[in-house]
Amino acid sequence: xxxxxxxxxxxxxxxxxSYGIMHLVVAIAVAFAITQDxxxxxxxxxxxxxxxxxxxxxxxxxxxxxEKRRLATGLEEAAEAVSSRLGVMSPQEQMRVxxxxxxxxHHGHSHxxxxxxxxxxxxxxxxGVMHFTVAVSVAFALTGDIRAxxxxxxIxxxxxxxxxxxHDRIWTRIEARELAQKTAAETEARPHHIA
Length: 195
Known about the structure:
With 195 residues, this protein is mainly alpha-helical. The protein is 83% helix and 0% strand. It has helices spanning 2-35, 38-85, 91-98, 116-143, 146-189.
């Protein structure tokens, strides 16, 4: 258990650090392109990612909870779909469970389409809104120029959102691969009983 907690903490620290570095580089580049002032670009590039990393950590934890709940709900719905297809759960029972009083011809749920694209899109949008708010606030606080702050606040988050999506997909694959390896190792470690 301790090893698991240390591994999770290490992975979270690496994820946050990689996000911070990526954000720093992009923030400085965009701020310099807009202000043409290297000192201002460095100031924005250093201060803004600090606040963005805090906001990102909160955003990531909130989405982790949401994804965990959806996974549990998805497993329940999948079990329900199997039960329905096997005839274990009648359409009336499904209506009772889901509270579908107005759907008289309800014959089970379709689980053919994954929610992943919708979830990725929503996660990216919430990240973009969060990022815009923090970027404009920090840029305005440092420059005192609302036009430059809005330009940085619009352009920089758009660029960061693209990089965030790539960053998030890479980390999702890393986490899935590690989970698969852990599951395989646990499966191999179990005693095999021959019947």
